[in-house]
């Protein structure tokens, strides 16, 4: 089976120490190295890559007391594919002589809060050096004083170590990978005007492009694995249920035409995946060039309208690739954005990297106030809400048919998904013939309803002239509506697409004064919904990439950015803008 291949990024742990011999350094060697080992144990038992494997840590061969040992450690990290570093110390060390100076690696320093040696003094001195050299680093310092022989990691330190590690791992993993545009700009949508400097300078990614006719070429010339097509079609007949056809009789397809449609959308799915990643099976079929793929960790399909006015839409292709289960079994999702909205594709990629979960791509479609719902349905909800709905990339995991140990609806990371989870998602999804007015070439759209009570984080990157990329975040929950109310509201837009009813957590001020304000302040027609409240992780990740956050409802005490951000004023969001502007894109 085709699958994205990568060499796992490792986390480097740098134990730094007071370089003075004849008593000082010798007394600290064990304590310092044990700090490094305790951090490695935490990370290696908690943080995973998106394929489910636990991250591996690399510890410097010796404690770092000066520049020679720092250089030796850097060389070891280079040889071991280290992508981010955490420096640990319980004591004073020689500031700029011991720091990590790689400009592209996310970096953090944990200074032990103890009274015997001045770990906090080194932390402050090293951070000052980082700031002066333009190398932002994250400061980790426990609230409570620990005893010198205490090898435990306090909870507040642990939280910051894990947040830094998740975000830094995402930054390092996407570096050097590709975003593949299949087609070009869809209906003038700004996000599908692919901004190459953004990918290169902020994400460290490259851009690849193929025309949509490449899918047509592979369809016509049968450049796919025929055995996989046969397997997929058999699987589709068993698990993909027919949905409602809302088209007028003259625009409805015959059973034979519908069978041909299924065959085409299944082949499109396999072809799009093969375009993204390598598939050795194609080389066996004498298609060596096509077998290589484009090293794409994410992609987008233009579809509308140059393709969909004539050929089947990409809804099945996008929904299935973004899900964690198909005819080949359970596997990590392939990130594919509808309408080639590359900015939403990036948010899907970041959400997936942070959580290992499939992502929901959606239109930010409609704000429903309490009064409007009552007027239309006779039912008055407790609060207004936003209708998230789109025909394409919403993963089937978004049905909420995965459950945790308490029976609550969740979206599991791919490594926890079972075949039964996948089958339940399919059982709660129907495939509706595409609405002719939208898609003259036909197609099949997934139709499902996300279960209520699930925590979600809505997020979106937009590019602003003169500013660059900015990130929006809104944490909240999916909600349930009475069945008849859902039916009435859903049919007012397009009942053949997947729906999530979403209400954000309100703060009573600014963009989160009320639900209407969230909708009014959203900067684009699309968003990504990631399961869980991961806004704090997104904020940390954005600061690493130098992308300011223009809107969020994350609690202040969870905002974790490089320490030097505090040098840019007192207000946290103003700090963020000024610091990101000052330091510039990570890879520029």
Write the layout of secondary structure elements.
Elements: E1 10-15, H1 24-44, E2 57-59, H2 67-79, E3 82-89, H3 95-98, E4 107-111, H4 119-132, E5 138-140, H5 155-174, E6 178-182, H6 196-203, E7 206-210, H7 213-220, H8 226-239, E8 241-242, H9 255-276, H10 280-284, H11 288-291, E9 296-301, H12 315-322, E10 325-326, E11 329-330, E12 335-338, H13 342-355, E13 360-368, H14 370-377, E14 385-389, E15 402-403, E16 409-410, H15 419-427, E17 430-433, E18 444-447, E19 455-464, E20 468-478, H16 483-491, E21 499-504, H17 515-521, E22 526-531, H18 535-545, E23 549-551, H19 572-583
Parallel strand pairs: 1-2, 1-3, 3-4, 4-5, 6-7, 6-9, 8-17, 9-12, 20-23
Antiparallel strand pairs: 10-11, 13-14, 13-22, 14-21, 15-16, 17-18, 19-20, 19-22, 20-21
Function: Converts the aldose L-fucose into the corresponding ketose L-fuculose.
Subcellular location: Cytoplasm
Keywords: Carbohydrate metabolism, Cytoplasm, Fucose metabolism, Isomerase, Manganese, Metal-binding
């Amino acid at each position: 089976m085709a699958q994205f291949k990568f060499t796992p990024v490792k986390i480097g742990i740098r134990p730094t120490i007071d370089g003075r011999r004849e008593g000082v350094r010798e007394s600290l060697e064990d304590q310092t190295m044990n700090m490094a080992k305790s951090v490695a144990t935490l990370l290696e038992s908690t943080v995973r890559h998106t394929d489910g494997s636990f991250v591996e840590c690399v510890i410097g061969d010796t404690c770092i007391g000066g520049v020679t040992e720092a250089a030796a450690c850097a060389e070891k990290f280079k040889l071991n594919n280290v992508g981010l570093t955490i420096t640990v110390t319980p004591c004073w060390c020689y500031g700029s002589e011991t720091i990590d100076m790689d400009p592209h690696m996310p970096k953090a320093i944990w200074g032990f809060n103890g009274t015997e040696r001045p770990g906090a003094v080194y932390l402050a001195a090293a951070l000052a050096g980082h700031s002066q050299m333009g190398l932002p680093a994250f400061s980790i310092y426990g609230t409570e004083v620990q005893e010198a022989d205490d090898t435990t990691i306090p909870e507040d330190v642990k939280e910051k170590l894990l947040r830094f590690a998740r975000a830094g791992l995402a930054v390092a993993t996407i570096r050097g990978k590709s975003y593949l545009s299949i087609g070009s700009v869809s209906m003038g949508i700004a996000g599908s005007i692919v901004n190459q400097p953004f990918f290169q300078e902020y994400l460290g990614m490259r851009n690849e492009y193929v025309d949509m006719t490449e899918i047509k070429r592979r369809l016509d010339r049968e450049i796919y694995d025929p055995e996989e097509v046969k397997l997929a079609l058999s699987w589709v007949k068993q698990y993909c249920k027919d949905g409602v056809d809302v088209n007028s009789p003259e625009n409805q397809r015959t059973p034979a035409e519908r069978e041909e449609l299924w065959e085409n959308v299944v082949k499109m799915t396999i072809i799009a995946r093969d375009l993204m990643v390598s598939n050795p099976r194609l080389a066996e079929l004498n298609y060596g060039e096509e077998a290589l793929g484009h090293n794409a960790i994410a992609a987008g399909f233009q579809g509308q309208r140059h393709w969909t006015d004539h050929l089947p839409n990409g809804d099945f292709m996008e929904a299935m690739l973004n899900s964690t289960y198909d005819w080949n079994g359970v596997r990590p999702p392939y990130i594919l954005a509808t309408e080639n909205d590359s900015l939403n594709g990036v948010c899907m990629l970041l959400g997936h990297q942070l959580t290992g979960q499939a992502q929901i791509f959606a239109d930010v479609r409609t704000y429903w106030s309490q009064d409007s719902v009552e007027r239309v349905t006779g039912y008055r909800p407790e609060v207004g809400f936003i209708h998230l709905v789109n025909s394409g990339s919403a993963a089937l995991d978004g049905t909420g048919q995965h459950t945790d140990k308490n029976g609550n609806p969740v979206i599991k990371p791919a490594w926890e998904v079972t075949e039964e989870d996948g089958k339940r998602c399919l059982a709660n999804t129907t495939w509706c013939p595409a609405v002719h007015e939208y898609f003259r070439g036909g197609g099949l759209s997934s139709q499902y309803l996300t279960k209520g009570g699930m925590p979600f984080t809505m997020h979106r990157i937009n590019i602003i002239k003169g500013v660059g990329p900015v990130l929006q975040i809104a944490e909240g929950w999916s909600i349930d509506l009475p069945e008849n109310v859902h039916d009435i509201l859903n049919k007012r837009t397009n009942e053949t697409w997947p729906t999530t009813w979403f209400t954000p957590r309100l703060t009573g001020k600014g963009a989160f004064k009320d639900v209407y304000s969230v909708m009014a302040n959203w900067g684009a027609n699309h968003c990504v919904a990631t399961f869980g409240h991961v806004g704090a992780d997104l904020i940390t990740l954005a600061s690493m990439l130098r992308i300011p956050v223009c809107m969020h409802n994350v609690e202040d005490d969870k905002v974790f950015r490089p320490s030097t951000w505090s040098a840019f004023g007192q207000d946290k969001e103003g700090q963020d803008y000024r610091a990101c502007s000052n330091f510039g894109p990570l890879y520029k």
